[in-house]
Amino acid sequence: MLIVLTGIDGSGKTTAARALVDSARTNGRKALLLSNHAARRRMSLLSERFGGRLPPRVADFIETGVRLFNVLVNHARAQRFDGLVVMDRHLHCQLALRHASGLQRGWLIPWLLEKLPSPDVHVHFDVDPRLAHQRVTARGTDNESLADLEAFRSAYRSLPEFDDFVVVDANGAPGDVVAQLNRAIAASEPTHHPTTGQITSS
C-alpha cells in the first residue's frame, strides 16, 4: 500500500509519517518511510546565513532537480518493497511551490504524475499558516516567513489535483490528527490490509 502525505511546512506531516511507520513496525508489519524532499530547508538556512534569497526560477530549478531525483528513486524502491510505503512529500509540493512563486506548472511534473503509480491514498495536512509558522519557529531548524506559508497553503488549494486529496485538519492536537489519518487510510481500504495498523499517539 502506498500512502502520500503533503502539506505546508509545520503541518505535522513528517511526524505523522514516522508515527504511521513506527506503529506498523511495532505491530510486526513491514513498513517503509521515504522522503521526497527538495533541499528547501538547507537552502533556507543558507539564504539566511548569507542575507539573500535565490531568484525564484533558480530556486525552482534546484528544488525540482532534487525532488525529481528523490521521487523517481523512491518509487523504484517502493515497487520492490512488499509492505506499507509512506512517502513524505511528492511532486505536488513542487507544483504548489511554483504556483506560490508565480511560476508556470510546466509539463514535466504533470506528465510524470500521470506516469508514476498513483498512491492508494493521498492525505493532505491542512493547517492555519499562523500555527504552522509557530511550529516552524519553535523547532528552529529552518526559516519560513508567515507570508510564504500563507502563499504555499493557497497554492496547494488551487492545484487541480487538490480535489483528489483526502484533507485532514492539522490544527488540532496530535492525537486528533492521528485519528483523522487512521480514518483516511481505513476508508481507502475495501478490506483489512495486512500492512497497515492503527497509529497510537503518545
TrEMBL record:
Pfam families: Thymidylate_kin. One of its GO terms (molecular function) is dTMP kinase activity. One of its GO terms (cellular component) is cytoplasm. The keyword Nucleotide-binding applies. Residues 84-179 form the Thymidylate kinase-like domain. Keywords: ATP-binding, Nucleotide-binding. GO terms for biological process: dTDP biosynthetic process; dTTP biosynthetic process; dUDP biosynthetic process. It comes from the Bacteria. Belongs to the thymidylate kinase family. This is Thymidylate kinase. The lineage of its organism: Bacteria, Bacillati, Actinomycetota, Actinomycetes, Micrococcales.
